[in-house]
Design goal:
Low-confidence stretches: 49-56, 281-288
Shape: globular
Helix content: 55-70%
Order of helices and strands: HHHHHHHHHH
Strand content: under 5%
Number of helices: 10
Radius of gyration: 20 Å
Largest sheet: none
Structural class: mainly alpha
Number of strands: 0
Distance between the termini: 11 Å
Length: 288
């Protein structure tokens, strides 16, 4: 990290919040179709797809196969269903998680110049939990729009504000924070797993002299960290998506959702859409 020179003014908290949120929104515009495909894959098996004329229910196969099927059956706009809520989520989530990270990290280090891995993990988990708590309503609406079949006549929601109002009316305000627990758990797992496995893989590659501390080594370590994160975090991510998208009373809790998934679909259900999660984790690690 490049330090500030004499006379430089560190960015204010407002600049950090706006900068982090804006950058996250720009990135989301490019990756949103992949996220939508991930959601469709994760809920597949729980609900039946739309009628594909002459061919029965739609079956999604792989991230890019899902994108192709959605474009063919529902049109290209379906890939960006829920984008407004998605941008709202990115602005609120990234602003808090990144904007407060340095301040929370300093709190855990108590002003010390030495920043250990424990302090980084605690800071990441703390700001992540705060960000989830704030952004959860936007995440719930985003996921429900992404899961909603655009080609159907009986749409669950007809607009972003309509979704907020309908959820609050039918499920109470608690419905807007549905799935907060598994979402915070997933965020903590991703933060911890990425950072720890990245350092362990990189150190192992360097110590065994398979690679030197250069760009290929960092790419390899990042991909390995992304894979490990997927293996550990994917089950929680799938449960989170299904529980957030579920109708009122469908599951009594996130744990009940997980048990129902296992009983109905087996252990493979917990790794639906995992290819996307691997790519996402890899991208995060490369970006620092």
């Amino acid at each position: 990290m490049v330090g500030f020179r004499a006379g430089d003014v560190p960015p204010t908290a407002t600049v950090k919040f706006i900068g982090a949120g804006t950058a996250a929104c720009i990135a989301d515009l490019f990756t949103f179709p992949l996220d939508t495909a991930k959601v469709r894959l994760q809920i597949q098996g729980e609900t039946k797809g739309p009628a594909n004329t002459g061919h029965g229910p739609v079956q999604y196969r792989g991230v890019f196969g899902t994108i192709s099927t959605m474009v063919r059956v529902e049109g290209p706009r379906s890939l960006y269903s829920g984008l407004v809520a998605g941008l709202q989520r990115q602005m609120s989530f990234a602003s808090v998680r990144i904007g407060l990270y340095d301040s929370v990290k300093q709190f855990y280090t108590k002003g010390s110049d030495h920043i250990g891995i424990g302090s980084r993990l605690m800071a990441g988990c703390t700001t992540g939990a705060m960000a989830v708590a704030l952004a959860q309503p936007t995440d719930v609406v985003k996921v429900r729009f992404q899961a909603q079949i655009s080609a159907g006549a009986n749409k669950r929601y007809h607009g972003t504000m309509d979704a907020y109002r309908t959820i609050a009316k039918e499920e109470g305000f608690r419905g807007l924070w549905k799935g907060t627990g598994p979402n915070i758990t997933r965020n903590a797992i991703v933060n911890c797993t990425e950072l720890v496995t990245y350092d362990l893989i990189k150190d192992a590659l360097i110590k065994s002299m398979l690679m030197t501390d250069d760009l290929p080594c960092h790419f390899t370590s990042a991909f390995g960290a992304g894979f490990c994160t997927t293996v550990i975090a994917s089950p929680v991510d799938v449960v989170k998506t299904r529980y957030m998208n579920s109708a009122q009373g469908q599951y009594s809790s996130a744990l009940n959702c997980a048990v129902a998934m296992f009983a109905k679909e087996g252990p493979k259900a917990f790794y639906k859409g995992s290819v996307f999660l691997t790519n996402y984790s890899f991208t995060v690690m490369i970006g620092g």
